[in-house]
Amino acid sequence: SARVLRDAVLSLADEVPGVRALVNSGRLSVPTWLVDSPLNTPDSDTFGGWMMPGAPMDDAPLSNDVQPRWLLEAVSASPAPAFALLHFGTLDDNAHRSIAALDLTLVALPDDGLAARRYDARAGTCYLIRPDQHVAARWRRFDAAAVRAALARATHPT
Asked: How confident is the prediction for the chain on average, in pLDDT?
């Protein structure tokens, strides 16, 4: 298995110079979980799964008629690092205007795909995503005031 090979390479790399070339530190790293960060807004709704505030985002394929696309690509699609709002299901015009006023990258997602399953989402579920692709907050329905408060907390913690 990959883990056995990794462990063998790491144990021999100190003593066998030729083995050092097999060490790939990128493969050995994993994203940091920031669940105790003061930048997170605690849940006010009940969720299952591991996509809690402070968790690094899980990726998922998104269906697209033109070309395959991934969730992490959609979140980082803006030219400068920005906060993003994942919204599962449909949004009305008032919500669109509120999100635009908050200067968020909106990533509209279906509430029945792989991303919805990974994020324990149903129609109306929202996730606020930090520029470093960690979950900052999540709700079962869009509320502009709650999103504004979570943005303030994530950018100016007290």
From this structure: 87
SS (H, E, C) the chain: CHHHHHHHHHHHHCCCHHHHHHCCHHHHCCCCCCCCCCCCCCCCCCCCCCCCCCCECCCCEECCCCCCEEHHHHHCCCCCCCCEEEEECCCCHHHHHHHHHCCCEEEEECCCCHHHHHCCCCCCCEEEECCCCEEEEEECCCCHHHHHHHHHHHHCCC
Classify residue 136 by its DSSP letter.
Answer: E
Q: Greater confidence, 20 or 11?
A: 11
Give the whole-angstrom CA distance, residue 6 versus residue 23.
Answer: 8
Closest CA to 129 of 101, 98, 157, 150: 150
Beta strands in 50-151 (DSSP E): 61-62, 69-70, 84-88, 105-109, 126-129, 135-139
Tell me the percentage of the chain whose pLDDT exceeds 90: 57
User: Pairing between strand 105-109 and 84-88?
Assistant: parallel
Q: At residue 158, does pLDDT exceed 70?
A: no
**Contact by Cβ (8 Å): 60, 114:** yes
